[in-house]
């Protein structure tokens, strides 16, 4: 495939219709293992999109210079990204919506929700490390959602795997076909640049001051390379490798990409701004625009239908300066206009959308309108929960967002009896936000049970209970490690078995919890008729 890296104005931005606006949107997330360079890449994408004037700073209206996603105290202290940001910027006439995903595996549940709002994901790999543990976990989440992936091999300025070795590694580990969009000239660490896969253009790598400004690339068209290639074994080798790959069934195939079977691969260095433009061009030219969405009843909602949106994240007290609760919506169809009224499909009740914000890190600006693919934050819409559909016009509900089966469990005890009410309200709030899942054990023990995919979620919950709700708690570890959803009709079987424990969520979800895979097997053998569902739907 050939990507033109001249950032053409691909779209006529004068087109005001919903269909045209939707066609310009690219809504994507980045999935990676910590340290692969996601923060660096995000900054560079914003730099090229004109949203940052200088890497390392955010063009904040008030002149503050903060990292865009640095929201929570815990984040700052531990240096991990816990919360999700949505960033919007324009490039080549397209509007790109980048939804940030948490970097830690304990928050892969959040990633699942983010991916429900994205049309595509960028899989970011470290040139030396390839597919790492967290990449694999997030990849599985992306695959379960069936969204297409664009692969960016980062840190090519440093020693790493041979490019053919990298392709082989990704294909074997993930079962994906890799189709190069750019191909490196010179090994990782002795990186000279990339060939665009039309074979015509060599883009030469040059180092700027830590990539603080654009540049870092010099384009040489075919003729200019003649002399270079003759005396440049690395260039010759790269050209041969590319031909080999194309002949071997890795040519670009849009259908296989859309089906999530084939991933375009680019090489570069986010730190040195190399390959950023190629990546943006690839997103604009091949990533899917928002399209028809399937609805819960098996119907379809086209982008030009009246307004509809999916709530994929709810977060309270996101910014200590505004103590409030924000529901993040992904617009799926129609035009959102400030002040419009919509209905919540779950409750049938109206929701006033008077205060919708576009969020950029800690900065908010009130938006007047938004189109399919855009992410908006609705302030203080207290009865909007994750997975809710809001709509105007003909009713619609999108399928529920699946949640991952929890693997960690604790009972939670309130240390201060005088704050009993706050304790219960706070737990419900954290459950609604999906920070942890809140269950009741229906045995004699009345202490609420918290369930999580990763133990760090408990740390976030405890911290937020104390910091935001003034509730101090003690957690007691429960020795359960697996859970499966069961039908309420099978509750008695789960309760009676010596291998399982039953816990029930506020929304009626029944989970059977097990100590070990062995216990799960034993239960299965005893109760062959009981269906055990691995993905628990909210
Ligand atoms: P993350 O969000 O995925 O966790 O990664 P982040 O961007 O924070 O990058 C992790 C480290 O990798 C940083 O170094 C960053 O500078 C470096 N890095 C990112 N992209 C590249 C690249 O293309 N080439 C090279 N050589 N390094 C890259 P650090 O030492 O942890 O921080 P810093 O002191 O450099 O800021």
Descriptors:
about 550 residues, seven-stranded mixed sheet, 14 helices, 32 strands, about 30% strand, globular, binds guanosine-5',3'-tetraphosphate
Major sheet: arrangement of strands: 18-17-23-14-15-22-19-20
Which regions are unreliable across 5 or more consecutive residues at pLDDT < 50?
Answer: 6-15, 54-84
Structural class: alpha+beta
Specify the oligomeric state. Answer: single chain
How much strand content do the residues show?
25-35%
Task: Categorize the overall geometry.
Answer: globular
Q: State the separation between the terminal residues, measured CA to CA.
A: 40 Å
| Rg (CA only) | 24 Å
How many strands? Answer: 32
Helix tally equals 14
Query: Which cofactor or ligand species appear?
Result: guanosine-5',3'-tetraphosphate
Q: How would you describe this protein?
A:
This protein is of the alpha+beta class. The chain has 14 helices and 32 strands. The protein has an eight-stranded antiparallel beta sheet. The chain has a seven-stranded mixed beta sheet with strand order 2-3-1-4-5-11-6, with helices on both faces. Strands 28-25-27-26-30-31-29 form a seven-stranded antiparallel beta sheet. Helix 4 packs parallel to helix 5 (133-145). The protein is globular. The protein starts with 17 loop residues before the first helix and ends with a strand. Guanosine-5',3'-tetraphosphate is lined by residues 32, 34-40, 103, 154-155, 157-158, 269-271.
């Amino acid at each position: 495939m050939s990507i033109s890296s001249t950032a053409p104005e691909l779209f006529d931005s004068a087109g005001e219709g919903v269909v045209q606006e939707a066609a310009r949107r690219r809504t994507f997330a980045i999935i990676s293992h910590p340290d692969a360079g996601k923060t660096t890449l995000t900054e560079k994408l914003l730099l090229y999109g004109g949203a940052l004037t200088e890497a390392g700073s955010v063009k904040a209206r008030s002149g503050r210079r903060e990292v865009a996603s640095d929201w929570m105290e815990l984040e700052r202290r531990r240096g991990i990204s816990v919360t999700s940001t949505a960033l919007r910027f324009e490039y080549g006439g397209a509007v790109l919506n980048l939804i940030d995903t948490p970097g830690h595996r304990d928050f892969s549940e959040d990633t699942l929700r983010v991916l429900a709002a994205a049309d595509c994901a960028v899989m970011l790999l470290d040139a030396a490390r390839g597919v790492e543990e967290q990449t694999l976990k997030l990849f599985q989440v992306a695959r379960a959602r069936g969204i297409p992936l664009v692969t960016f091999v980062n840190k090519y300025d440093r020693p790493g795997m041979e490019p053919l070795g990298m392709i082989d590694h990704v294909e074997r580990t993930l079962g994906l076909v890799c189709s190069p969009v750019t191909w490196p000239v010179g090994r990782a660490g002795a990186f000279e640049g990339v060939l665009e896969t039309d074979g015509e253009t060599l883009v030469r790598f040059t180092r700027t001051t830590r990539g603080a400004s654009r540049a870092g690339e010099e384009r040489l068209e075919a003729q200019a390379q003649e002399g270079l290639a003759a005396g440049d074994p690395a260039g010759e080798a790269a050209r041969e490798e590319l031909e080999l790959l194309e002949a071997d069934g890795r040519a670009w195939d849009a259908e296989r990409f859309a089906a999530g079977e084939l991933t375009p691969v680019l090489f570069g260095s986010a730190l040195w701004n190399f390959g950023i433009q190629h990546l943006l061009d690839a997103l604009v030219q091949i990533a899917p625009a928002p399209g028809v969405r399937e609805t819960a009843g098996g119907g379809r909602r086209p982008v030009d239908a009246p307004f509809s949106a999916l709530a994929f994240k709810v977060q309270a007290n996101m910014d200590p300066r505004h103590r409030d609760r924000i529901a993040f919506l992904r617009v799926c169809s129609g035009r959102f206009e400030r002040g419009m009224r919509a209905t919540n499909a779950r409750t049938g009740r109206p929701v006033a959308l008077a205060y919708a914000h576009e969020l950029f890190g800690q900065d908010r600006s009130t938006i007047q309108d938004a189109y399919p693919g855009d992410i908006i934050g609705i302030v203080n819409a207290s009865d909007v929960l994750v997975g809710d559909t809001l709509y105007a016009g003909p009713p619609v509900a999108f399928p529920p967002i699946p949640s991952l089966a929890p693997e960690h469990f604790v009972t939670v005890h309130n240390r201060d009896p005088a704050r009993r009410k706050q304790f219960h309200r706070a737990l419900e709030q954290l459950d609604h936000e999906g920070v942890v899942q809140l269950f009741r054990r229906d045995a004699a023990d009345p202490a609420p049970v918290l369930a999580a995919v990763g133990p760090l979620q408990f740390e976030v919950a405890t911290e937020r209970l104390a910091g935001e709700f003034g509730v101090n708690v003690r957690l007691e570890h429960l020795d359960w490690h697996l859970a499966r959803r069961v039908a309420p009709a099978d509750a008695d079987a789960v309760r009676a078995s010596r291998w399982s424990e039953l816990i029930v969520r506020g929304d009626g979800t029944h989970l059977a919890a097990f100590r070990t895979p062995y216990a799960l097997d034993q239960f299965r053998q005893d109760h062959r008729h009981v269906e055990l569902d691995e993905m628990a739907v909210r």
